[in-house]
């Protein structure tokens, strides 16, 4: 017997229709690439998205066509999020931090048809315009007054002109909720990047689950500033969840330095933000150096790589901002777990709470997870046994675009490539990426633990722990450290800092200092590059 409820497809356009109807006056503020601050309402944004949907029709976008962006977090990018997907196209957010050769490879693989870009990236566009195989239209996301005088891009169009030339009336089409809506490529640290194709259904379900109180906890009373780029897994879904709940949105545009961010946090009374640890490092460094505080910020979501407890303490104890540690992947839309304490943990001491917060958290409803040993057998949830983490759920990938890499699933579960433990309360803790694991005498050493300890040292700006070859133990930990500016610290100081904090045999065998730790296009430490750099490093023999 079927239930007798309406069948309505879950479509991204419904988020915009809802935001316009119920939160039409709510504001969206952007620091524009042109340098000024732009301010308008959800109602205005919805009208311009419809104009852009009409424009996409004129440009020949057909259902399923990929429309790419190379853009910062701004209101124009937000308009494209809704115009492209809402009208039945697939929004492909390219990562502008990639090398132009990689951009060409990805755009060709995705068979992008139209490319919208911020003026900052004009040099990239000029470098790739004659090389990409399928892109037939380039649109600069600016007004006529700011259009480049001369360019090597033939037939370059202007975003604001397209908007003006098209009417704000457009009826969002209805179609199957399983239709593709947007596309992101994995960072591709091994092999070529692979396309992850989200659907309208997966996006709406992810949006609902991620807004929940024990997840990102966003509401219409919030003012959200997503620092995480809209080209990094759809800014963790915030452009969608803000519409669903009617939250004010503040887009930082290209201004991701500490000063620009802090000014915007304060002037727009931001309450919630989200980003990877490396971004927060810049902001906290600037605030520390200038003795600044936050007056309205209440929470920040930190994920993408492990948030060092030292950073959490700084946010929470010095600035009164609660840190929500979160974990996910491009293949998971991205949210899998968020770390919020359970009611029964309210009585824990501050240190005990911090130990829980350092974990990546509990699965949000919709995501199921398990850890398995090398034989594939499930491991207990005792907070100790560590194994590969597998996940499943309605916003988790079933296969990559064009079937690249074959079937990624194992008995219906997606292997994440992360190594984790799960405690009896369901809190998951990542100890490593499986390819970054350090195996000493057959036993795993958790590199994230070792990095977190080093990051708590006052002289350390960033630390990465990698495996170095060892004649007796196969591999031993080598700590690579980038010092804070003008800080003085020796190898011995750092090694002494580990005493009493971990099992003695986990202590790194050596410490090397570098001017900079290489970061990937989404701000993650590139351990593969470091392993390459220190391939011939001779560890001291005891
Ligand atoms: P990406 O698809 O580029 O977002 O990368 C996903 C990977 O980032 C995960 O598989 C993890 O290895 C890592 N990651 C994401 N969030 C965290 C976190 N909170 N702690 C540790 N690693 C994380």
Structural account:
The protein is α/β, with parallel strands linked by helices and 542 residues long. Among the domains are: 12-23 and 47-216, ANL, N-terminal domain (Rossmann fold, 3-Layer(aba) Sandwich); 437-533, GMP Synthetase, Chain A, domain 3, CATH 3.30.300.30. The protein is built from 16 helices and 25 strands. Helix 10 crosses helix 11. It is globular. The model has no long low-confidence stretch (mean pLDDT 95). Bound molecules: adenosine monophosphate. Adenosine monophosphate is lined by residues 186-187, 233, 303-306, 325-327, 329-330, 334, 360, 416-418, 430, 433, 522.
The CATH topology name of the domain at 12-23 and 47-216 reads Rossmann fold
Which structural class best describes the helix and strand composition?
alpha/beta
- End-to-end Cα distance: 73 Å
Q: Which CATH architecture of the domain at 12-23 and 47-216?
A: 3-Layer(aba) Sandwich
Q: How does the SSE layout of this entry go?
A:
Elements: H1 13-23, E1 27-31, E2 37-41, H2 42-58, E3 66-70, H3 75-86, E4 90-93, H4 100-110, E5 112-117, H5 122-128, E6 137-140, E7 157-158, H6 159-165, E8 180-185, E9 195-199, H7 200-210, E10 223-226, H8 233-236, H9 238-245, E11 248-251, H10 258-267, E12 272-275, H11 277-290, E13 299-302, H12 309-319, E14 322-328, E15 335-338, H13 350-357, E16 362-363, E17 368-372, E18 387-392, E19 414-422, E20 428-433, E21 438-440, E22 443-445, H14 447-455, E23 460-470, E24 474-483, H15 491-497, E25 510-513, H16 527-533
Parallel strand pairs: 1-11, 3-4, 3-5, 4-8, 5-6, 6-7, 10-11, 10-12, 12-13, 13-14, 24-25
Antiparallel strand pairs: 1-2, 8-9, 14-15, 15-16, 17-18, 18-19, 19-20, 21-22, 23-24
Helix pairs in contact: 1-2, 1-9, 2-3, 2-6, 4-5, 7-9, 10-11
The protein binds adenosine monophosphate (AMP).
Adenosine monophosphate binds next to β14, β19 and β20.
